[in-house]
Amino acid sequence: MTTSNTAKTITIETTVNAPIETVWMMWNGPEHITKWATGSPDWHTPYAENDLRVGGKFLSRMSAKDGSASFDFIGMYDEVQLHKTIAYTMEDGRTAKITFTNFGESVKIVETFEAETENTPELQRAGWQMILDNFKKHVEITS
């Protein structure tokens, strides 16, 4: 799954009703990532690690709850601007960028990523959006 300069990009977004400090902490804290990083109710993320700095690496293990499948979501950070931007390159060479726009008591998150070629762009958009929606729910329920 490699990409070229013609890779399709997909953009998803949400607005989270919480202060930027809370949103940032819950987006990046491994103890929170394991609570929200799932694209389907029959999957979960039992393990996550995150070294949030340029050159730092992240890993989230995503697994089917019935034990039938799992995979590691791995990458390295290319850009980190506190409370503003995170950009990274995934293990397969695709890139992603997340921007956080602070509106005081809410934060708009816009995530753009290069699509892979194994699944349709529609399926990828739906899966990544579900993960982002799970993040929003986790923050708003927890904070």
Walk me through what this model shows:
This protein has 143 residues and is of the alpha+beta class. It has one domain (9-142): START domain (Alpha-D-Glucose-1,6-Bisphosphate, Chain A, domain 4, 2-Layer Sandwich), CATH 3.30.530. It has three helices and seven strands. The chain has helices at residues 20-28, 30-36, 121-142, and strands at 9-16, 43-50, 57-64, 70-81, 85-90, 95-102, 107-114. Strands 1-7-6-5-4-3-2 form a seven-stranded antiparallel β-sheet. Helix 2 (30-36) crosses helix 3 (121-142). It is globular. The model is unreliable at 1-5 (pLDDT under 50).
For this entry, give a set of tags.
143 residues; alpha+beta; Alpha-D-Glucose-1,6-Bisphosphate, Chain A, domain 4; seven-stranded antiparallel beta sheet; 3 helices; disordered N terminus
Strands, helices and their partners?
Elements: E1 9-16, H1 20-28, H2 30-36, E2 43-50, E3 57-64, E4 70-81, E5 85-90, E6 95-102, E7 107-114, H3 121-142
Antiparallel strand pairs: 1-7, 2-3, 3-4, 4-5, 5-6, 6-7
Summarize the structure.
With 143 residues, the chain is an alpha+beta fold. The chain contains three helices and seven strands. The chain starts with 8 loop residues before the first strand and ends with a helix.
